[in-house]
Amino acid sequence: MKLVIAGVSGRMGRMLVAAASDDPSARIVAATEREGHDWIGRDLGAALGGAPRGIPVTDDLAAALRDADAVIDFTAPAATLTLSAAAAQAGAAHIVGTTGLSDDDIAVIDAAARRIPVVRAGNMSLGVNLLTALVRRVAATLGDDYDIEVVEAHHRRKVDAPSGTALMLGQAAADGRGVDLAGHSDRGRDGITGARAPGHIGFASVRGGDIVGEHDVIFAGPGEVLTLRHVATDRALFARGALRAAHWTAGRAPGHYAMTDVLGLT
Ligand SMILES: NC(=O)C1=CN([C@@H]2O[C@H](COP(=O)(O)OP(=O)(O)OC[C@H]3O[C@@H](n4cnc5c(N)ncnc54)[C@H](OP(=O)(O)O)[C@@H]3O)[C@@H](O)[C@H]2O)C=CC1
Ligand SMILES: O=C(O)C1=N[C@H](C(=O)O)C[C@H](O)C1
């Protein structure tokens, strides 16, 4: 599989290079960075401080994607939208790990997914995707007298909150309860907030140090608290998931897929 790695100098970009380099059935054909980045025009191997690998780092998406089967994208919403159009134009699959996407952004990706396979997930790990099914089941089983809170913790450089994973878990809880998440969310409590709204799903975010990603879904009810927890200890986990998703798109019909489809959890 011929791959393009987007945002290659980032935390996940570097992980993706390592994961793809260890995969005998994957070959990185190009890497991208934003216009003006000091890696543009350099060889990827050299930019990473090693031997040249004959892989260009470019901001020319059409050129990067010309010969690619898939692009793996853990960047930022604006970059993901540009890549979405370029991937659809080139006929390459788009694997989207970027979080912080708005509903309008997702509508743009939906349009591209009519032409190419797109796999998008706020978390590409097996554990979190399994956890969504557990959360849905527990939320469906427990009544409204169990308050649901999603608490997430990440490193100090994360720019979006709540995390994409927290929103996936909140969505699973809302699905289990049969309610619309947007109309039943509490985000960012501060000051005299009043008592907790019954049936709402709360979100809280912790930022600090180098925490890779921790998520608790708390069901607090009369006389007991049930907590479902996932802890990521190495972000190589997400890169392996993304690579698996890229392979899964080979020969796949256009569509907007989730990681649960890739993992056979749907
Ligand atoms: N779904 C999942 O499993 C996971 C998702 N994520 C998500 O992935 C995203 C990236 O995370 P992380 O790697 O930690 O962030 P980083 O900031 O370390 O990396 C993002 C990279 O994208 C680059 N970038 C920004 N704009 C463009 C552009 N127009 N074209 C190409 N590259 C661009 C950035 O460059 P510059 O710094 O110069 O702006 C940077 O190199 C986040 O949204 C995060 O939440 C992270 C881990 C797992
Ligand atoms: O930015 C990160 O680091 C992570 N982002 C994803 C998210 O927003 O949930 C996935 C993971 O938790 C790491």
Automatic annotation (TrEMBL):
Domain (Dihydrodipicolinate reductase C-terminal): give its ranges: 127-263
Q: Which GO terms describe its biological process?
A: diaminopimelate biosynthetic process; lysine biosynthetic process via diaminopimelate
Q: Which residues bind NADP(+)?
A: 34
Report the locations given in the UniProt record.
Cytoplasm
Residues of the active site are 154 (proton donor/acceptor), 158 (proton donor)
UniProt keyword terms in alphabetical order: Amino-acid biosynthesis, Cytoplasm, Diaminopimelate biosynthesis, Lysine biosynthesis, NAD, NADP, Oxidoreductase
What highest taxon heads this organism's lineage?
A: Bacteria
| A cellular-component GO term for this protein | cytosol
Annotated NAD(+) binding sites: 7-12, 33, 97-99, 121-124
Concerning its family, UniProt says: Belongs to the DapB family.
Q: Which PANTHER family match?
A: 4-HYDROXY-TETRAHYDRODIPICOLINATE REDUCTASE 1, CHLOROPLASTIC-RELATED, DIHYDRODIPICOLINATE REDUCTASE
Name the HAMAP family for this protein: DapB
Q: What is this protein called?
A: 4-hydroxy-tetrahydrodipicolinate reductase
Species of provenance: Oceaniovalibus guishaninsula JLT2003
